[in-house]
Amino acid sequence: MSANLLEVKALKTxxxxxxxxxxxxxxxxxxxAVGETLGIVGESGCGKSVTALSLMRLIPNPxxxxxxxxxxFEGQDVMKLDDDDVRALRGRKIAMIFQDPMTSLNPVLTISxxxxxxxxxxxxxxxxxxxxxxxxxxxxxxxxxxKKRLDDYPHQFSGGMRQRVMIAMALSCNPKLILAxxxxxxxxxxxxxxxxxxxxxxxxxxxxxxxxxxxDLGVVAGMTxxxxxxxxxEIVEKADTxxxxxxxxxxxTWGLLKSIPRLDEQRREKLQPIEGLPPDLIAPPPGxxxxxxxxxxxxxxxxxxxxxxxxxxxxDGHETRCFGTQxxxxxxxxxxxDWRREIGSIEVLEQVKxxxxxxxxxxxxxxxxxxxxxxxxxx
Amino acid sequence: MATITAxxxxxxxxxxxxxxQRSLWMDAADRLRRNKAAMAGLFVIxxxxxxxxxxxxxxxxxxxxxxPYDPTCYFYLNGHTACGGDVVGARSGPPTANPFWGxxxxxxxxxxxxxxxxxxxxxLMFSARISMVIGxxxxxxxxxxxxxxxxxxxxxxxxIDNLLMRFTDIVYAFPDLLLLIIIMATIRNTWIGDIMGGLxxxxxxxxxxxxxxxxxxVRGQVLSLREKEFVEAARSIGAGPVRIMTRHLLPNSxxxxxxxxxxxxxLAIFAEASLSFLGIGxxxxxxSWGVMINEGFVVFTGTPSMVLxxxxxxxxxxxxxxxxxxxLRDALDPRMKL
Lengths: 379, 338
What we know:
Radius of gyration of chain A: 22 Å
Distance between the termini of chain B: 62 Å
Helix content of chain B: 55-70%
CATH superfamily of the largest domain in chain A: P-loop containing nucleotide triphosphate hydrolases
Oligomer: heterodimer
Strand order of the largest sheet of chain B: 1-2
Number of strands of chain A: 12
Shape of chain A: globular
Number of domains of chain A: 2
CATH architecture of the largest domain in chain A: 3-Layer(aba) Sandwich
Largest interface: A-B, 36 and 26 residues
CATH architecture of the domain at 126-332 in chain B: Orthogonal Bundle
Structural class of chain A: alpha/beta
Number of helices of chain B: 12
């Protein structure tokens, strides 16, 4: 598989904190072809961003460290590069778009200086050249009268414009791969659509591979070719985008899908949130990591850790980390389940709700920090 | 639709609403300009600076001399004058001429002379030079030393931070004035103490004592800034540590640094005056306000103006810098209300 732009094998990133070792990314493997777009989906704290930062070796050390795994980028092991070579890679071959455009731009530098920084660093352009290229880039991402806005400061730009600037920065050296870490989370919905359209156009125009990291399944639906769902530091389901929405094979994915509002839903019914809290990554559950919140669970789920395998009744390459949908001893008790109708065991649901209700509110807030409050569930 | 001609296009371009490019610094300058006390302070400082520069300026054929006489020239009562060299004659006697409001005023010397016949006005003017230089040069040195150490400690963290900050703490633990006196008293009589009439040693001594505050300030700023996303963004485009420190961290931490520098200037001037008054600062015959107070001190009861005039200069300059510092603080950080 030498055609792949990126191959990540058994990536394991941990944070060594006073409370213990946080298994932020645990045994994550995936690959990406040239020009492909991949979505990584999951709720906050499941290791999406840490995966992205690991790819660029940007994990703050201490406390974080990539303890295991290989990251092959264009056949070269990023893990084995020295600091200078990694810096030469960052921005030049792999670029990143950050979540919050309000804080990702340096407030004391003009827009042109921020964008030209990468150009000067990697392509050794002089001022005049980089200025010219900066204008091109700004026009490319759709900033009107780019020439006039060149010497503006970030505070003179709106959120959407700043995110465009961030995209222009990421594009400046024509990278092979762009990691977009929640690029639209901080923007309002109309701007989100515009930004996503720009990303989509650019990936087609320049054959840039994208990894789009988000907690919003709606964002990845129209953008990506494949989707990986992450939970508790692991990939729990891998599938083509269409396949994932059409025939999801992991109870966590079902939960995610049930918690987004759908226009084609017939009955007036409540959105169903996933009850419970994401697992503590210092001491993750010994069995399936989703087991404590799963309403479809069996005894085996808490005893044994499921591997990532081809799912039953699914397309080739659709992998899941759930005993219920894998071939095996119990013949996949969930293989035929219609996730839209059957919500699993009501008793388990009540138990999970009860457990959360008994937790002190600080613990709940801590476990769900940096998740925007869920929208009102009623439609 | 008709095509647009070049001239029409130009007209269109001119009508595009453009805002002036405004950096945060320009906003701050505006706020400073509106602050009356700060502007008054700035004018006083500018006034002293002009006097200091033009006290005796020779640039090629150009010669501007604001000061009436050479501050080291003695005007003896018998009409003789002598210039240069150290104090000759009695220092405890009365001044040879009183200021214009005094009994035996001499129209040649507006503010009178000292005990050995040197013109007070000229000496005050030349002293302004010392004070201005001593106000600004060490502060730049604080910034260079403290800024570098603070940046490195804050950015790298870990053992580098520990090492640099414990060293900083050790220097910080010494009482300022005591350390200054020790340095000045021990090195003043070596050849280092003779460079620039003792000025050079004062620069060094002040810098050794005072860079710690700057180092701590910059480190604190860097600690909070380095977690910001734009620093991560800079790292993600492949910027190295030096670039991140100089281009991203330092400019963003500059506002409190400038305020701190503005407040350090009067303190440095005051330290010079104190040391010179104690006789371990600037070496006579080079005039400085502290030296003048020291010399006038012995005849304070007879001729208080010899002490009061340089003291008033020190007070005025310090007040001006304090006002300017307050104004800068308000201008650079409108949220910070102290």
